[in-house]
């Protein structure tokens, strides 16, 4: 009899342990399922925030505009039935370049990307190990901006017809409407041509250096000494300006420099024009093109951001 009683006790003990294990696994499954669901919802918020911020940038907005757009879209979303709590620390505005490591950096320019890292704290239903858990996700949205050229324009309205004419002379001339531009704010004198060539696209046998981000009010150093640069980068190079520029679109700064006079010295940036280059005349030192629709007034002309992470 005692032996049967011991067997019953063992069965009950095993049953209790099995039930405890079963309910523990069930609790883990329930909480894990919630984690997966909340993770998906948090990722959707991260994606929406990144796209909203990058869209603000693509339409000519500032970094502050991008931050605010990302925060605003998050406030209209829901995670686990409630509005996610996001802060400026969950949004970074910077540059995305697939050729570089890291691909995204908040310290690089120009700003063409937004990275978001929203986090959400959930209350576990069973909480076997912890009453709460934090779920975080990452998203990056970016767009391809029109690349810059080391060229700046004088202060006049630039409409659909665009003629960028270089003259070697520093005197008064109807052709003086553009100049080579140096983006380095530490320079006070126009450098030699080797520095200028560094800012030309690599397809033009240049160094492909990306200039610092230019905004309205920042300063550019202009120079008219274009004759030898045109000769070096246009006439004698089989893959020079005449071959590499036409058909491409660039973002050109408009400066406070008066037109038709010597375009030399420091001038402030007063605006920008996006221009497509049509032709390059190496003998006349002339680049011609046309202005494309302004993104600030024609939304369809703006680049469209996409998720890259």
Task: Measure the end-to-end span.
Answer: 69 Å
As for the number of domains, it is 2
User: Average pLDDT across residues?
Assistant: 76
Percent range for β-strand residues: 15-25%
The major β-sheet equals: 7 strands, antiparallel
> How would the global form be characterised?
elongated
Put simply, the count of helices is 5
Count of β-strands: 14
Helix content: 25-40%
Weakly predicted, low-confidence segments: none
What would you report as the Rg, rounded to the nearest angstrom?
Answer: 30 Å
What does this structure look like?
With 309 residues, the chain is of the alpha+beta class. The protein has 2 domains: 2-142, no CATH class; 151-307, no CATH class. The protein contains 5 helices and 14 strands. The protein has helices at residues 2-58, 63-75, 193-198, 227-235, 241-244; strands at residues 91-96, 104-105, 113-116, 119-123, 132-136, 139-142, 151-153, 161-165, 178-182, 219-223, 249-255, 265-281, 286-291, 306-307. The protein starts with a helix and ends with a strand.
């Amino acid at each position: 009899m005692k032996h049967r009683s011991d067997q019953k006790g063992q069965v009950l003990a095993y049953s209790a342990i099995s039930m405890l294990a079963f309910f523990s696994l069930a609790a883990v499954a329930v909480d894990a399922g919630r984690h997966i669901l909340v993770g998906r919802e948090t990722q959707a918020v991260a994606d929406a925030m990144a796209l909203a911020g990058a869209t603000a940038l693509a339409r000519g907005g500032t970094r502050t505009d991008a931050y605010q757009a990302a925060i605003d879209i998050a406030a209209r979303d829901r995670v686990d039935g409630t509005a996610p709590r996001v802060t400026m620390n969950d949004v970074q505005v910077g540059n995305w370049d697939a050729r570089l490591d890291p691909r995204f950096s908040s310290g690089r320019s120009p700003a063409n990307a937004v990275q978001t890292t929203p986090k959400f704290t959930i209350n576990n239903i069973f909480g076997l190990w912890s009453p709460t858990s934090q779920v975080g996700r990452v998203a990056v949205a970016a767009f391809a901006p029109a690349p810059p050229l080391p060229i700046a324009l004088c202060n006049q309205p630039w409409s659909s017809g665009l003629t960028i004419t270089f003259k070697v002379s520093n005197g008064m001339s109807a052709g003086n409407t553009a100049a080579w531009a140096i983006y380095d704010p530490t320079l006070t004198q126009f450098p030699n041509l080797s520095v200028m060539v560094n800012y030309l696209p690599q397809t033009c046998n240049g160094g492909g250096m990306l200039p610092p981000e230019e905004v309205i009010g920042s300063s550019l150093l202009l120079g008219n000494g274009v004759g030898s640069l045109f000769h070096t980068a246009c006439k004698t190079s089989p893959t020079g300006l005449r071959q590499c520029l036409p058909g491409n679109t660039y973002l050109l700064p408009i400066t406070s420099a008066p037109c038709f006079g010597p375009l030399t010295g420091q001038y402030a940036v007063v605006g920008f024009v996006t221009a497509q280059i049509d032709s390059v005349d190496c003998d006349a030192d002339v680049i011609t093109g046309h202005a494309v629709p302004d993104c600030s007034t024609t939304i369809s002309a703006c680049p469209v951001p996409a998720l890259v992470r």
